[in-house]
Amino acid sequence: MSQIRDNIKPAQVPPPCPLAAIARDDLFVHYTLESARLGNRPMVERRLADLRGCFADEAAFEAALRQGNPLLYSVSSVEPAAGDGQLHYGLGILQPGKIGAEYYLTKGHLHAHRPAAEIYVGLAGEGAMLLEDEATGESRLVPLRTHSVVYVPGHTAHRTVNTGAAPLVYLGIYPSNAGHDYAPVAKNNFRHVVIERDGKPMLVPREKK
Ligand SMILES: O=P(O)(O)OC[C@H]1O[C@](O)(CO)[C@@H](O)[C@@H]1O
């Protein structure tokens, strides 16, 4: 018996929670749905020109860009602590609109640390998450709206789409070591496109060029 006990390795003890090391304004952050900004954190803004290559209808994209360079979405983030078990989160606001038949969308990314999952909490508006398994290309369109939560598994490219008429506001919560890897989506894009057909969102395969 004692021999068995001797062979049991002690569980790894995590370092003590660095509560004192966390800034007070990282422990409590206020936001409003109108500003969709976390406290006074900087807003990263993505305008139409930043989304070059994302939309399927390139002629419609160039035509829209000639009319102006509207703000499509903004994200502010809180990163209280790094290290094993810690979390970061971001508040996003994605405007309504379309390029051709395709709804306004975010660039989309994989996590640099591929196993990292993410939780999206819908706070306002009506949209969806486009999920794509990196290895198999398997795709899902999952609704994201007020009072809904979407689970994004690890190893899954994810893009947010606004399918409604009002701004889509959402909170994304992810492991502190997740990181953003934009390169695979920038190179290959998603295999599917979310378009409006007969007034409703529909997932269709991207046409080959
Ligand atoms: O597709 P993008 O450009 O990364 O935008 C989505 C944003 O949503 C989040 O996943 C959560 O707010 C951010 O990490 C990310 O920047």
From TrEMBL:
Catalysed transformations (reactions): alpha-D-glucose 6-phosphate = beta-D-fructose 6-phosphate
GO cellular component: cytoplasm
Keyword Metal-binding tagged: yes
Superkingdom of this protein's organism: Bacteria
Pfam annotation, one family: GPI
Pathway: Carbohydrate degradation; glycolysis; D-glyceraldehyde 3-phosphate and glycerone phosphate from D-glucose: step 2/4
GO terms under biological process: gluconeogenesis; glycolytic process
Alphabetic keyword roster: Gluconeogenesis, Glycolysis, Isomerase, Metal-binding
EC number: 5.3.1.9
GO terms of molecular function: glucose-6-phosphate isomerase activity; metal ion binding
Domain Glucose-6-phosphate isomerase prokaryote: 46-200
Similarity field: Belongs to the archaeal-type GPI family.
PANTHER family: CUPIN TYPE-2 DOMAIN-CONTAINING PROTEIN, OXALATE-BINDING PROTEIN
Protein name: glucose-6-phosphate isomerase
